[in-house]
What does this fold into?
Amino acid sequence: MAAKVPALPALLLTFTMFPGIGLCAPATGPAIPSTQATALDGHTVVLPRDISGFPAILILGFGRHSADATTAWEKPVRAQLAQPGKLGYYDMAMLAEVPGFVRPLVLRAIKHAVPDVVKPHFLPLTTDEAGWKQVAGYQDAAPEAAYVLLVDAHGNVRWSTHQAYSNAGWQQLTEAVQSLAAAK
It folds into this structure.
């Protein structure tokens, strides 16, 4: 006979294992992968080092057609939440599967499409796709989704979702940001 699992611990385990369902992730979740990338404005960014000292929102796109989903989150984050030295953000496109000979063309197209104000915060990623997918809670059924992560000053995931941008999702993110700020 199988052992009974109490309902509450099983429910909490579900939310911990699948933070993309839109609820707050564990108090201190997994650490983001150490990553070096060149932002579209040409400066080098090393994560999590370059967010040290303040939290950040990371908006990841893994699919070829994820730009609309990531932009839907990026615009309000940039306009309403991001504050230099208090809360950073990066819009990140995973390009690891793009063949090397095609990558310069893809990067040129991205540079052309991304507004200048976003370029210092836009990171094309070409390494550690598996690590980023794991920390983001990537799901094969949602390859074109925006994977939104709120990370603390040490690069640990504190909240995440892969749901389409909505007022409810935005409210959850802003509450998570406020909660993280209050915990300092």
Summary: The beta strands are 21-24, 35-38, 44-47, 56-61, 88-94, 122-125, 146-151, 157-161. The chain has one domain: 31-182.
